[in-house]
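Section 5.1 Outputs to date
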Amino acid sequence: MPSAIVSARELGMAGCHTCGKAVHVGKHAHVECPRCGSEVHFRKPNSVSRAWAFLIAAFIMYIPANTEPMMRTTSLGNESADTIMSGVIYFLSHGDWHLALVIFAASVMLPLLKIIAIGYILISIQRGSTRRKLEKTSLYRIAEILGKWSMLDIFVVGLMVMLVQLGNLTTIDPGPACIAFALVVILTMFAEEALDPKLIWDQQE
């Protein structure tokens, strides 16, 4: 039975990945967008493999981001190093459970859930799954929106470095986890950018 819905691909049309303009591609291998000059494809080239590469790199960096110190504090000659979880435990022990919950959710759970969500979508695409397409598309959009909040911990450390500088009495310096954590956020953003959500809908029911 012919499909009741005619897709843009069946009409030889593709949306520019840069500006979104609908461009007639037809059977041509390379077509430039008349609006912005970007190369237009029906689907992002090597989308799955590139997304996997960024995602695996993000997961590797996720480990030192949570095990290495996020910041180093020197006060009256005494130096201490705090990881993300030690900061969460500190706020919990002082009764600031709401702040501990925000930091834990934004800095620990969100990056991990984003990695799991993108990995789940990639696996379902590779397996040719035709189930829950709408839910997977919504999951992709949620990961795209919430992923930006993962930088909360970096902002907190940056503010503390600027505000809590009291000469020789107290100094706060960012730790190696800051770089790893920033890389996690950046790499997951690259992974979601490399992933073409149209691939979710390519498998016919």
